[in-house]
Structures are given as C-alpha cells and as structure tokens.
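does this look right to u?? iron/sulfur cluster version
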Amino acid sequence: MTEVFNLQLHVAHACNLSCDFCTHYSNHGHKGIVSLERAREWLDGSKQRLDPHEFVLLGGEPTIHHDSPEYLEKVEPAVRLVRQWEQEHDSRAEIRPSDQEWMRLYQGTGSDMAPFDDGDPRTSWKNCVTRHCTQLFEGKLWKCPPLAYLKLQKEKYGDGFSSRWDPCLKYDGLPPSASDAELQAFMARKAEPYCGMCPAQVHTFPVANPLPSARRAS
Ligand code: SF4
Ligand code: SF4
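got this back:
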C-alpha cells in the first residue's frame, strides 16, 4: 500500500459559495455531479493500493467558515446539525476558520485568469497550501486541485483562456494502470516544473463573504 496524506474527491464541481481564488475553481460556476457508481469505479481503481490518512469528499461546501454576521447566520443550522451528530455518533467535528489563511495561487478570474511566473517552482511548492491534496478525478490521481481541474477552466473559456496555461494543461493524472513503482514515485514527487504556475511569494488577503447574495450586492 502507498501512503497518501490527503486524498480528495469532488462529488460536485459546483459550489453553493463563491470564494475568491478557490483552488478548485468551484467559484467559476462549473457544473457536474460525480455519481455514486462513477465514484465507486474511480475508487475501485486505487483502493487496493492507497492508504490515505484522510479521505475528503468535496463539493457544495455547506460548512466552510467565514466570520461575517450574514454568513454565520446562514451557516448556523448546519453547525447545529454537526453538533447534533457529534452527540448522536460519539464523534468530534472540527470547525476551522479557513478564511483566515486564504491565499491566491493564480491571478485574475474567469477568462482573465493567469498563472504566476515567479520562476521558482521549489519555493512555490514549499509555500503551497494544497501540496498534499491529491485528487482522484476521472479515475486518475492528480498532484493537486489546481492541476486536476484546470481542464474544466479550459473547457469553459475555450479560446478565451490564456495560452499561458497551455504548458500546465499538458499535465495528466496517473492512471490506475500505473505500476507500483510509478505510483510510489508519483506520491514522492515534491516540486516539479508545473509548480511554477503558482506564486513563490505568499499572497494572503481578506476573503470576501462567499455567499452568492453578498457577491451580487458587491
Ligand atoms: S466553499 Fe469556496 S473554496 Fe470551497 S469549493 Fe466552494 S468556492 Fe471553493
Ligand atoms: S502546481 Fe505545485 S505549487 Fe501549484 S498547487 Fe499544485 S502542488 Fe501546489
């Protein structure tokens, strides 16, 4: 078995929220649900070979946290439900103030989105918040969300999508047919040239209220 720190699977590419610089590009209005049968197929390809410390289902994100009063009021029923589950199932849920460590990994948004070009992929990887977030997408393993879902951005914006992304669009995930040695090499890989699309400097910023109603008003 090959160890994976954090294995993530999108059950939906869409999101109820719209956070600036979402590393999964879910703030760009993507559609599509991964059916249970499809997810099972993808998992069947790797479950005998991977030993994830964490397995994360993503999509919709009803409980991400932001501290604006409007958002806290909206999310309160979900928090109450989570607390109820803790009692009923003798378990513990951790609520993280994720908005406090928000950073951007690309510039611009939509068809104006552009990669960074700091020329220091090793430092970009060292500072990367998603460097341990391996994605299971289309049955393959992908290094991180920005590389896995970049093709969705290209499909959406077509010729309007900057050609500066072309080298990164060549990235392909590791197929289930990969040998054990290839899988281990994939998981051991740290910085690679693709990481040059991300900033070497850390760009933090105060993330705006991600509720779509707040985004429309701003
Ligand atoms: S909650 Fe925000 S960060 Fe999470 S997937 Fe949705 S848009 Fe992206
Ligand atoms: S390409 Fe490298 S630096 Fe950029 S998000 Fe992926 S792992 Fe992180």
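The chain has a mean pLDDT of 92. idk if thats expected tbh
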